[in-house]
Write a structure and sequence with these properties.
The complex is a heterodimer of chains A (288) and B (349). Chain A is mainly α and 288 residues long. Chain A has eleven helices and two strands, in the order ααααββααααααα. Chain A is globular. The chains are: A mainly alpha (288), B mainly alpha (349). At the A-B interface, α4, α9 and α11 of A face α5, α11, α13 and α15 of B.
Chain lengths: 288, 349
């Protein structure tokens, strides 16, 4: 194995890890704010992919151009989902919560299959295609743009949480629901916001992926398990933790695939996940 | 009306006896293979639900990775049969015992986790098992294993018609129900309820929590694996896609939730309703190839989880309580509902 291949693999691991991080950020935010694990999170990503596919196929609008529009649509979708369904299960037993979001996952996949057929689709010749050489490493241009885009969106979310009043209110609700309520923060509004941002982040990841990843109704399944791992490693509810854990998982996945064969890369990540859960249940970066 | 033999407390056992008798005689009455096949599916899913319920319902540990035990059961009996000619009856027992043994590792690694963490860890374990079997040449890898039909009859547990499979599924369900009933009545059931409802109180009076959780898990794994072996003998073909799919883990939990978690017959009721709806929608809409059956099934899951969190049996009990309260003249149905909500809020808190 040459150093060249190693560097190449490392770079592609970091780039895909940035996408995992973006998917996981929404998941960790929803969990942090309201203690609900959203199994339907991968489906937000799927909807983001289809939105950019149809805008491209019907109106010849490039995914990079329609990114803001798609993100807005997903934000609205997340808020509506909260208002109509999730709101009803806030105080329900954990089992009902798991099955509500799990049912939503299957439902959204079913609806996508009904509307758009189970075929694999792809976006050909978008603005970002071909490859580029960076510091001697050959990188796919779509992958590079996706990774950088994921960093940009993550930084935006982070700035929103740390620099704005609304973001502070969201963080306060995550830290202590009751205390935040006493300070006059409407928790339903915060929950809806968390679902909106969560869906928007996953949708953005979908758009960024759409230029180089096949688009099909069950595409979310490839990401949800990894997103759980990232959320766990980063510590439930931690956005910065999810960012670093995402990169770590991406690198471990491609490195494991290189060493043991690509069919085992998910297994390697999951074994690591179980090991971390056992010895540090609060996650690698979570506080004890 | 005063001499009605089916009065109050005696009505349920009488109805239960009739249902059991009807269940045993069903293959004599109907010879339609499709009806019988549906009935077998209902029984097999119910059996898995009852087994899941031992851990998920009584001990309150929500496993979403039980398909790992199911797969271990089906692969163990099938591999022993194909490579050593071991009788499937013994293979089924071996599969159950191996699953119970492996559940020690499963429990050791997952029981220190709570709530969502536990559920996610169980999904991860099942995924790892699936990846291993998909790449393991000895176990047929992704191609799967086929059981030959050359030997038939009760000894070989291979039949050309459906009726014997029906009775096998019914027998296994009865066995699993019997074991659950015994657990429910014994001190184990008592401790499990304490662990589920008041873990701190249980620990403070000296209940060995992890030991009782492990007992529930091992029993649950044992019966789930037996269900897997029965599936292999019925289909005569297994592969990771059929016996190690997460969808099946979910279904085991789902029938319990629909019927009522932590109740003896809840998963059976749940399976009758859910499996029937699933098969009927598949037969009605499945041909379109556009996933209409999936949409109906998923909408149902969401509807149940949102509107009937205590399951059909819980709903039936509330309804009966309300009716009894009304008959006694002190009927305040609204009060019952309030209490229920309070309980839920406490659980969530």
């Amino acid at each position: 194995m040459t150093a060249d291949i190693l560097l190449q693999t490392l770079a592609s691991g970091v780039l895909i890890g940035l996408i995992y991080a973006l998917v996981a950020i929404g998941l960790t935010m929803i969990f942090g704010v309201m203690d609900i694990v959203n199994f339907a999170h991968g489906e937000f990503l799927m909807l983001g992919m289809y939105a950019s596919f149809w805008l491209f196929a019907l109106f010849a609008l490039d995914p990079m151009l329609t990114l803001p529009l798609t993100v807005l649509m997903l934000f609205a979708f997340g808020v509506l989902l909260y208002k109509f369904i999730i709101r009803r299960i806030i105080d329900a037993p954990m089992l009902s919560q798991i099955f509500t979001t799990f049912g939503l996952m299957i439902l959204l996949r079913g609806v996508a299959q009904f509307l758009w057929k189970p075929d694999f689709r792809s976006i050909e010749n978008s603005w970002v295609s071909g490859s580029v050489k960076v510091l001697g490493i050959q990188l796919g241009q779509p992958q590079l743009v996706a990774g950088l885009g994921a960093v940009a969106v993550t930084m935006l979310v982070h700035a929103f949480l740390t620099r704005t009043k609304l973001g502070a209110a969201l963080e306060a609700t995550a830290a202590d629901k009751e205390a935040a309520k006493l300070m006059g923060i409407d928790s339903h509004r915060m929950f809806a916001l968390a679902w909106g941002i969560g869906a928007a982040c996953a949708g953005a990841a979908g758009v960024l992926l759409a230029t180089f990843f096949p688009i099909f109704p069950e595409v979310g399944a490839n990401f949800i398990l990894l997103a759980f791992v990232v959320v766990n490693l980063g510590g439930f509810g931690s956005v910065t933790g999810a960012f670093w854990a995402g990169i770590l998982v991406g690198v471990i996945e491609v490195m494991g695939g290189l060493l043991l064969g690509p069919q085992y890369k998910l297994a390697i990540v999951l074994v690591l996940f179980l090991a971390v859960l056992m010895f540090r249940p609060q996650g690698l970066m979570g506080k004890a | 009306m005063m001499t009605n033999p089916l009065k109050k407390g005696r009505a349920l056992p009488a109805v239960g006896g009739l249902v059991a008798l009807a269940a045993v005689l069903l293959p004599v009455v109907t010879h339609s293979p499709s009806h019988l096949n549906l009935a077998i599916l209902v029984l097999m899913t119910a059996q898995l639900g009852v087994a899941w319920n031992l851990l998920g319902g009584y001990a309150g540990q929500v496993s979403l990775g039980h398909v790992a035990f199911y797969g271990i059961g089906s692969y163990t009996s099938t591999l022993l049969l194909l490579n050593f000619g071991l009788n499937p009856w013994l293979g089924m027992l071996a599969g159950g015992l191996l699953a119970a043994l492996l559940s020690l590792g499963f429990g050791w690694s997952c029981f220190r986790l709570k709530g969502h963490y536990f559920a996610m860890a169980t999904i991860a374990v099942a995924e790892i098992v699936q990846i291993v079997f998909t790449n393991w040449e000895y176990a047929g890898a992704a191609v799967g294993l086929t059981i030959p039909m050359d030997q038939r009859g009760w000894g070989a547990m291979v039949f050309a018609d459906k009726a014997p499979y029906y009775w096998l599924a019914l027998g296994l369900l009865a066995l699993t129900l019997g074991a659950t009933w015994a657990v429910e009545r014994s001190h184990i059931g008592y401790y499990l309820r304490a662990i589920k409802d008041e873990p701190d109180a249980a620990r403070s009076v000296g209940v060995n929590i992890s030991r009782y959780k492990q007992i529930a898990l091992s029993l649950s794994a044992f019966f789930t694996a037996m269900g897997g072996s029965l599936y292999a003998q019925k289909e005569l073909y297994i592969d990771p896609g059929s016996v190690l799919t997460t969808a099946l883990s979910i279904k085991m939990a789902l029938v319990s939730i629909l019927g009522g978690v932590g109740t003896l017959f809840g998963p059976v009721v749940g399976s009758v309703v859910l499996t029937t709806i699933e098969e009927v929608t598949r037969a009605t809409f499945g041909g379109t190839g556009r996933g209409t059956d999936t949409i109906v099934y998923a909408a149902l899951i969401v509807g149940i989880a949102v509107f009937y969190p205590s399951g059909l049996i819980g709903w039936f009990r509330e309804w009966r309580q309300r009716r009894q309260a009304q008959q006694a003249g002190t009927g305040k149905p609204a009060k019952n509902v309030d209490e229920k909500v309070d309980e839920k809020a406490e659980v969530a808190a």
